[in-house]
Amino acid sequence: MKGKLSFLVCLLFMFPVALADLRIGFYKDTCPGAESIISGVVQTTFASDKSITPALVRMYFHDCFNAACDASILIDSTSAKPSEKAAGPNLTVRGFELIDKVKKAVEEACPSTVSCSDIIAVATRDAVALAGGLNYTVLTGRLDGLQSDPSKVNLPGTSISVLAALQMFKANQLDSIDAVALLGGHTVGVAHCSFFKDRLSSPDRSMDPSLFQQLRTNCSSSNNVDPTANLDQKTPFDFDNQYYKQIQMRKGILQIDQRIAFDRLTIGIVNDFALNPDKFKQSFANAMIKLGNLVANVGEIRQNCRVFNQPKPRPQQQNNQVDKQERPSLIF
């Protein structure tokens, strides 16, 4: 046994790794102004572009739902190796420039300290609050992942059945209330016609006839290659519970949005959120926190959110002491 432990310790000295340490106020001592810096950039952006809220919510969900919140969605593809950005569901994800601005600011204040994955989580929370949602507590201490593989992107499709969707959420430790609450993030933002064009080829009994005609006209516009439609027909920039009221009236844009309104597995939750806006906001916040608990076991603090850090040779250690600036852990 002693020999095995010695082997593990040797591995640590040869290949130091960082372990995620998720908690409130992780940067209190190492970068006390981190969250203020993030909030400042988000507020400035939101003042001129309220669509940044759904953009960040989508980025956060797409990043975290694939096993971990590790900022793998931020990695740029190269001619030699595609990243998660190249996966079909991620082609319309945006907001990367905001993350770049935040990263540049926090690097100037606290070099190699604040992870890109934490930036996404905090920025999303701030954007939701600015749009009218809760200013919920975000745990920090995430690490940035060491891979970004488009073949591993597995997100619920817009035409998925309710049962299949709930099973996918369950696989990510999220229950049916979490699932319906997170779909409520569609109370802000738009969807490209390509995501629901299958519902427009012929009249869809699950869709309000007037909405059907409106969408059909809008999506056939020749002025835009892939036009968009508001996911919430009434208050598309306010983080409220109008989404649930809209789908109750068969005005859901995406098929999965409409299905949860009348499926026996979710109709009760939809009705509850439609009647209780505060309960929806709290449930959404709870689900975002739970989703954020999916973290990479090991990783790094990227200096540039779009590329992995270049590997550096490990300096010779003196007296078998581990560098105190590392966050070492056993790798098995």
Automatic annotation (TrEMBL):
Q: Which CDD domains match?
A: secretory_peroxidase (cd00693)
Skewed-composition ranges (Low complexity): 309-321
Q: Which reaction does it catalyse?
A: 2 a phenolic donor + H2O2 = 2 a phenolic radical donor + 2 H2O
PROSITE patterns membership: PEROXIDASE_1, PEROXIDASE_2, PEROXIDASE_4
Biological processes, Gene Ontology terms:
hydrogen peroxide catabolic process; response to oxidative stress
**Signal peptide feature range:** 1-20
Residue sites binding heme b per the record: 186
**What's the cofactor?**
Ca(2+); heme b
Region ranges (Disordered): 309-332
Where do Basic and acidic residues bias regions lie?
Answer: 323-332
One Pfam family in the UniProt entry: peroxidase
Q: What is its main location?
A: secreted
Residues reported to bind Ca(2+) 1? 63, 70, 72, 84
For this chain, the annotated S-S bridges are 31-110, 64-69, 116-305, 193-219
List residues binding Ca(2+) 2: 187, 232, 235, 240
Give a yes or no for keyword Nuclease in this entry.
Answer: no
UniProt keywords, alphabetically: Calcium, Disulfide bond, Heme, Hydrogen peroxide, Iron, Metal-binding, Oxidoreductase, Peroxidase, Secreted, Signal
The cellular location(s) given in this protein's UniProt record come to: Secreted
**Site annotated as Transition state stabilizer: where?**
58
Gene Ontology cellular-component terms for this entry are: extracellular region
Highest taxon of the lineage:
Eukaryota
Q: What is this protein called?
A: Peroxidase
